[in-house]
Write a structure and sequence with these properties.
The protein is an alpha+beta fold. The protein is 41% helix and 20% strand. It has a single domain, classed as Outer Surface Protein A, domain 3, CATH 3.90.930. Strand 2 and strand 3 form a beta hairpin.
């Protein structure tokens, strides 16, 4: 298998960032810098799907959790992933 033949790798949560649920919210703890980020329940659900699957598959899985069509959640998913990326939480 060549580099060009490998399947695309999607968003992947860093292994040293942990998720702690607190009521309707959750906290992402970044062990690298000691920061904590409060996120809502849907962002926590999305975080748990960041396992390297291709973006389209991640959007479809997230949409299925809420009984929605992928195109209705795609922009929100991309925006949340961009925030995770900006915070340095993805590998």
């Amino acid at each position: 298998m060549t580099i060009d033949d490998r399947p695309p790798v999607g968003p992947t949560a860093r292994r040293d960032v942990t998720l702690q649920r607190v009521g309707r919210e959750a906290i992402l703890h970044d062990a690298r810098n000691g920061q904590a980020h409060v996120i809502n329940a849907s962002a926590a659900q999305l975080w748990e799907l960041c396992d390297g699957r291709p973006l389209d598959d991640l959007v479809a899985a997230f949409a299925a959790l809420y009984g929605r069509e992928p195109q209705t959640v795609a922009e929100d998913v991309r925006r949340t992933l961009a925030r995770f990326e900006a915070l340095g939480l993805l590998s």
